[in-house]
Amino acid sequence: MRFYRALLRLYPAGFLADYRHELCAVFAERAREFSGPLAPIRVALAALADVVPNAAAAHADMLRQDLRYAARSLGRTPGFAVTAILLVALGVGANTAAFSLADFVLVRPLPFPHADRLVKVWQRTAEYGRNELSPANYRDWAAASTRSFADFGAYTAGAVNLAGAMEPRRLEIARVTPNFFPIVGVPALLGRAISPSDSNDAGIVVLSYALWQSHFGGASDIVGRGVRLDGTPYTVVGVMPPAFRFPRREMDAWTPLQLREDDFTDRTNTYLEGVARIRDGVTFERARDELGAIATRIEQPYEKENGSIGATVYRLRDELGSRARLLVLALCGAALCTLLLACANLASLLLARSAHRARELAVRAALGAGRERLVRQLVTESIALAVIGGAVGVAVAMIGVPLLAHLVPQALPVAERPSVDVRVLVIAVAVVGVTGLLFGVMPGIRTGGQGAFEALRDGGRTSGGRTRPLRAALVVVEVAASVVLLISSGLLIRAVWRIQAEDPGFRTEDVLAVRTALPRPAYDVTARRAQFYDRVLRDVRVLPGVRSAAYVTGLPMRMTGGIWKVTLPGELKGPDESGSASLRFVTPQYFATLGIPLRRGRDVAETDAADQPFAAVVSESFARRYWPTGEPLGKRFTFAMNERTVVGVVGDVRVRGREMGSEPQVYLPYKQVEDSSLVGYVPKDLVVRSSAPPATLLPSIRRAVRAADPEQPVSDVATMEEIVGTETAPRVTQLRLLTMLSTIALLIAGVGIHGLLAFTVSRRSQELAVRRALGAPSGDIVGLVLREGMLLAVAGILVGVALAYPSARAMGALLAGIDPADPLTIGVVGAVCLGTAVVGCLRPAVRAARITPLAALRAE
Amino acid sequence: MPSDRADVDALLPLPPATFHILVALADQERHGYAIIQDVEARTEGALRLSAGTLYRSIARMVEQGLIREIAKRPRPVFDDERRRYYRITPFGTDVARAEIRRLTELVRLARARGLTPETA
Fold first, then answer.
1. B86 and B58 in contact (C-beta within 8 Å)?
2. pLDDT digits over A490-510, tens only?
3. Across the interface, do A22 and B36 touch by the CB < 8 Å criterion?
4. Which of A75, A108, A125, B69 is at a distance of 20 to 30 A from A620, taking alpha carbons?
5. In chain B, where the domains are located
6. A321 φ, ψ (degrees, to nearest 5)
7. Contacts of B53 in chain A (CB under 8 A)
8. What is the nearest CA distance from A22 to chain B, expressed in angstroms?
9. Contact assignment for B82 to A58 by CB distance below 8 Å
10. Higher model confidence: residue B106 or residue B3?
11. A22 touches chain B (CB under 8 A)
12. Based on C-alpha coordinates, what's the Rg of chain B?
């Protein structure tokens, strides 16, 4: 029997309290029927068989009952239920989405074995922290740094044309040193990757999974097939797995990098990106310092060429710009604010509800429902709210996360898009769940205690009153959180406005851009390229609607690098002090097509041929920098391997984007370059200014290109507006999210104020009635209520502004120079919050003013 | 007052234990162990309710309003102080009748097809 009694604890306490004696009595009768030597064992078995399944079923019964009760009680107050569920969903959804993104971008290991030991190596100059390496520096650094690095490779990204039976296609490729794949550590899916034994075999190519699928239909016999890249035959030796996206997300193929002896002669020709694997047991810092010391040592004999070049090492993840990082972190901050708000409001709601229900609970307690039963009931209700809200939140997150893909920096070498992170989801649900439990169950615990009779005695007037200071504090928290959110988004909105108001230096409307990157070595001869451009431009310029068309090395904001050292004759100081300028080869009409104003002199002309004096058109900032007082036209400087004479001055263009400073620009006539020289600067982007819509224009452009060279693919079609829009896309996405979150936050805070005041007014109706009876005018009563609401709002705004300043400071890099304490933003936010508070107060205030002594007494 | 048809139907079909407990209480008030004995006797030992099954059923049936515990116990002098007695409610009677009607109808339908225990 003792065993049976012990087992009984498995039953729900409420059930046991009711039936313990009966269960024992009946089981005792049953036990008496067993006899013989095995009787104790049989009794124990019978006890187990009786209690275990029935206890489980009893718990299930009770849960069902509680759920039914919860559904009924929530159904009676649908407003409360829907609000609570939406709050939970908002908190859970926003946080799951934001932190899933943060985890994806900032935390989760990159998809390479021991990704933490994988680093990128750059040359550092006084001007730029991350410059490509020259082959000579790469060779010397790699040879000298074997103590820190297990292996040190390099690659250069580029593009080639894939010709074949199908439509010619533009491929993004990387030419890699033979040790590249062993360093990255990912094996091929099919065949093999490029390996150190390939050093003398340039004619092989490894395909990306995507290219293998899309262009070769996933053919199983792909390994060993021949393909033509830029007219040269290559043999496919392998296919990489789908997730392999190194060095960039869009990579189609990898070919071996062939460095010839004469590549090592010029230390200023920098185009290699270094990638290395740190040895086991060597820390990142030690490897970085060692390479720095090596670079300094190697630099000395080449002081003249290398200038003050140093080496710098970045972890793969740290390649992300600080701005991309901040965008994500700011979003997480906003999500946390929202969660705080949602929790505060949920708590407030539950407390308000508890005040309303104090009587009901007291009645149930008086009728014999035990404290355990009541708490259990309330727990069930809270959990039901959390679960339903959580489920809606998951749906919100699932829809939301893919929308955040814009915020995943292109620089991140990962294949997949972010997805909902289960760990984050669990944490978010837990936070809301705990809030729900805490504030949902409190009334049950109190009612079970001594409060029951009080609640019955005073008609529930005081029991709810005790939660008032807590609810007031919650309202202050809500207002403060929404102020932080509003100020942050306000500042970001101003930043985006400021950025968008920045004149890019060119006109974006009615300009269509396409890329025709000419293959090497077929087009290494300048005259042959010129022929192609002339043919295409001649056909395009006569198309209906076309006003002008031109070729350029690369479009602003799309090709952001491409700079060259400027040397002035005679007045040369140090190599660093002469500075660099952005280098572009252009055909005539480029400035007209992009709407870049010609300030002095002339455009480049067809007559600027190879046998004529080399000309250059420079930007205003270039002219200002080198000839601050004199006339720039006719001045000479050495640039891009030749001496050039300034023939024109044009307006400045924001080559690197509207948020970054750009070097001054130099434009060179497309014919004035030696064969096989400056191949990275060969014009490849065709820009067309036209009144015809892009959709009707494009087929004609394709025809013109095909007529010039049937094997030439057309790629990267975009309007100039799109190209410029892409630049601010992550910001705009983030801004939309923040604006949405802060609008919701403001609403929540407003509802919070309203709820609290409505509650206070109904609590104090008797007192207000007495005041009215004693002759207080209704204006006084309105003032009383308004004063209370405003007090809370002002407190919240002050706290919020104090908190917003450090958070705005933290995202200073995103603010484009807007002061984190921008008085306009703070003023507007404060006014909006006060306005919302007034609206929230209005209804309770009016109700308070309408209270008549008679009505208040009748309600008693 | 006749019970609401929908309330009755919502409970059908009854779990066997519930049905037997209703039948056991149809003629008189009984305490728990007496219910077990009555069910066992009527089913010739085929159904022996365990203590847990019995009181779990009772708890639910009280909640559903099929039976109620009676405050005044019969013949308190002779009775065991601890025992609690239960009585069928009018609603419980209605539900039991509805269940019997349902079962009878099932049997009638089966017989109409010529399906009887003997031929089975």
1. yes
2. 888 888 888 888 888 999 889
3. no
4. A125
5. 5-112
6. -70, 155
7. 50, 54
8. 7
9. no
10. B106
11. yes
12. 16
